[in-house]
């Protein structure tokens, strides 16, 4: 639960204030789709027959328990019926990165995806399982493991392992006048006795949900076919989420109507803020246990605090310890040999931990998932703690600006796609989408500009944060400039839509204006080939206009490849660079992208570099996602975090240089 100790990724696009019930569908009639994705390592004992038996055993065990609440699907990635081009993007990410891929933010699909990896080694079948929940965006906090000797036991043991983390999900609603209690409406509550899967004392993790500018992700059937929306309908906006750290719900009552009454356990004054674009909260039940706890405190530099230093740690499993009424059974004793604080007794499901040193007091609600040590951020030097907190806020703002730029890019792409339909309905939809995108980006720019000013005022807490603040400012400048372009495109598209609705105007004139608007939008993103195709249509429509051919020929000359080195540079920037997938890869490719950019600049190729800028937005977001999934307490991960920071600096400098060149 302490994976994102130094890098906190928080989406921040606009401010919302309406309650979750008005913004989020509780989906009480929606059945669960629980997909078990079986991944096996080749071995003579892991045969086709073995995998088929495991699939049957898992399905029999889980579908019976799930009953009328939903459907279990077991998918074997080794099955020839599932070639990689039919895989869900999440499956591909898992294949590339393993269980760490589940921690990356993504758009919500509503599907539970549980990965089960089976490997035979040293005379035993080794099972590993972890789940991603597509309704909340949360994943199981840990990888469950189990080993068995007999092949006929694998399916049954796998079923038990998977079922522990199924986790019912729900939508959170505040209760009027109650700050520390909420109501949870369970998904699928109208389909059957869902109460059997949740009980008093259970613990739920939380995620804040936000709307995006992107259309909701496509869904696939069990045969891999894409589910298309009904003809004439507009896909709803995609939802994404951010885990709410150190905030949990503890079930106090299970109501027969499929709702829960829960106590809120949090370290924050406002447990469930509707800010930063959050429109509501969803939650998922965790597979907690009863066990004694061991706590280690982590300083802001990632090192373990190895002395008590007048630090008092206390823990309870029902509420945070009351300083006015100290209970000796709540005190956690320090063990110098392990540098850990140990509870006197087992705690059930959740540990409400208070760490105090002088006037510095912090509270941490932590789910108990195992008997391994729990790492908590606490610095015995208040100045260091303030610096670490400030740096986390800077990283959050950087991630938010990158997310806002990415959403803006997707908005441009969506508007272009809608205009490409060349229909009256498509143009109207493009106008509506562009206007929503403009408003969202404008709100993000204003909010993040205020946050940047606040962070700049506190720069003395960590002067090393100056380069990151500069990159935030660079992103905000680009966000504002591209939004001005979008506003100009909106005026053009609006003019097209108005003229389409005017029966007195000729259809040819309206179509010409539509094509001109599309060409301008395409060129702003460096989409030269699509713009040339649009010019061809415009010339056929208005053959009597010689200026159009001149403009088309000029664009074709600008886009023309100069020589083999130029072709190689363009192919690298537009085809190879977008596939870079790991932090070491980013680092290894920096010299190559530098050389390719220099080649394009030498050839005067502004169009390729303008298109590269849109790719940079996705690359920067990918880099931040990779860094956010790392554990700052581990030496290897700290090295990768440092590499990601250095790569980010060089990418930001290169982007700034390209922006100046293509003006």
What does this structure look like?
- The chain is of the alpha+beta class and 663 residues long.
- It has 4 domains: 20-163, Rossmann fold; 290-380, Immunoglobulin-like, CATH 2.60.40; 381-559; 561-663.
- 42% of the residues lie in helices and 22% in strands.
- The chain has 14 helices and 22 strands.
- The protein has helices at residues 20-23, 48-66, 89-97, 154-163, 382-420, 424-457, 466-500, 507-524, 528-541, 546-559, 564-576, 583-602, 606-628, 635-662; strands at residues 32-40, 70-76, 112-121, 124-133, 144-148, 169-175, 178-186, 203-215, 219-220, 226-227, 237-255, 259-266, 278-285, 290-291, 294-298, 312-316, 333-335, 340-342, 347-348, 350-357, 360-367, 374-377.
- A 6-stranded antiparallel β-barrel has the order 6-7-12-11-8-13.
- The chain is globular, with a radius of gyration of 27 Å.
């Amino acid at each position: 639960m302490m994976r994102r100790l130094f890098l906190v990724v928080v989406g921040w696009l606009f401010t919302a204030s309406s309650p979750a019930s008005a913004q989020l569908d509780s989906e009480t009639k929606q059945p669960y789709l629980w997909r078990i994705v079986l991944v096996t390592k080749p071995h003579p004992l892991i045969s086709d027959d073995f995998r088929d038996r495991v699939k049957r055993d898992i399905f029999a065990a889980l579908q019976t328990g799930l009953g009328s609440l939903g459907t279990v699907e077991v998918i074997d990635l080794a099955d020839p019926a599932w070639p990689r081009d039919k895989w869900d993007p999440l499956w591909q990410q898992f294949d590339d990165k393993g269980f760490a891929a589940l921690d990356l933010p993504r758009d919500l699909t509503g599907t539970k995806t549980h990965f089960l990896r089976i490997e035979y080694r040293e005379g035993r079948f080794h099972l590993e399982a972890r789940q991603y929940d597509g309704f909340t965006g949360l994943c199981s906090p840990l990888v469950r493991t189990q080993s068995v000797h007999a092949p006929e036991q694998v399916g049954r043991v796998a079923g038990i392992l998977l079922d522990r983390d199924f986790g019912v999900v729900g939508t959170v609603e505040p209760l009027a006048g109650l700050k520390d209690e909420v109501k949870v409406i369970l998904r699928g509550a109208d389909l059957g006795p869902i109460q059997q899967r949740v009980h008093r004392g259970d613990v739920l993790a939380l995620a804040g949900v936000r709307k995006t500018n992107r259309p909701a992700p496509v869904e696939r059937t069990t045969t891999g076919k894409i589910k298309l929306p009904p003809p004439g309908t507009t896909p709803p906006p995609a939802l994404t989420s951010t885990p709410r750290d150190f905030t949990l719900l503890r079930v106090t009552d299970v109501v027969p109507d499929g709702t829960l009454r829960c106590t809120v356990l949090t370290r924050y004054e406002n447990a469930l803020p509707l800010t930063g674009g959050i429109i509501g909260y969803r939650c998922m039940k965790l597979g907690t246990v009863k066990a004694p706890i061991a706590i280690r405190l982590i300083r802001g530099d990632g090192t373990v605090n190895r002395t008590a230093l007048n630090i008092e740690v206390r823990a309870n499993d029902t509420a945070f310890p009351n300083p006015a009424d100290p209970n000796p059974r709540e005190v956690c004793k320090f063990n110098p040999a392990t540098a850990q604080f140990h509870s006197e007794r087992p705690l059930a499901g959740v540990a409400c931990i208070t760490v105090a040193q002088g006037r510095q007091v912090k509270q941490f609600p932590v789910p108990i998932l195992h008997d391994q040590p729990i790492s908590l951020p606490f610095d015995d030097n208040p100045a260091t703690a303030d610096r670490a907190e400030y740096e986390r806020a800077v990283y959050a703002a950087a991630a938010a600006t990158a997310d806002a730029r990415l959403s803006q890019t997707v908005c441009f792409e969506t508007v272009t796609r809608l205009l490409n339909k060349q229909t009256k309905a498509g143009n109207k939809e493009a106008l509506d989408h562009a206007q929503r995108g403009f408003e969202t980006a404008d709100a993000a720019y204003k909010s993040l500009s205020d946050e940047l000013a606040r962070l700049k005022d506190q720069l003395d807490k960590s002067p090393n944060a100056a380069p990151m603040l500069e990159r935030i400012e660079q992103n905000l400048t680009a966000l504002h400039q591209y939004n001005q372009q979008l506003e100009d495109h909106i005026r053009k598209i609006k003019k097209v839509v108005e003229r389409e609705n005017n029966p007195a105007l000729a259809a040819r004139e309206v179509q010409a204006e539509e094509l001109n608007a599309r060409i301008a939008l395409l060129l702003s993103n460096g989409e030269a080939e699509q713009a040339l195709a649009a010019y061809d249509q415009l010339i056929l429509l208005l053959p009597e206009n010689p200026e159009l051919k001149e403009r088309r020929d000029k664009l074709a000359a600008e886009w023309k490849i100069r020589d083999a080195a130029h072709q190689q540079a363009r192919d690298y920037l537009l085809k190879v660079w977008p596939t870079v997938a790991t932090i070491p890869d980013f680092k290894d490719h920096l010299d190559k992208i530098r050389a390719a950019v220099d080649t394009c600049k030498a050839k005067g190729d502004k169009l390729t570099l303008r298109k590269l800028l849109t790719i940079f937005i996705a690359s920067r977001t990918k880099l931040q996602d990779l860094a956010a999934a790392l554990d700052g307490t581990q030496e290897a991960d700290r090295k990768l975090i440092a590499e990601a920071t250095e790569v980010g600096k060089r990418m930001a400098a290169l982007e700034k240089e390209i922006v100046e060149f293509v003006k």
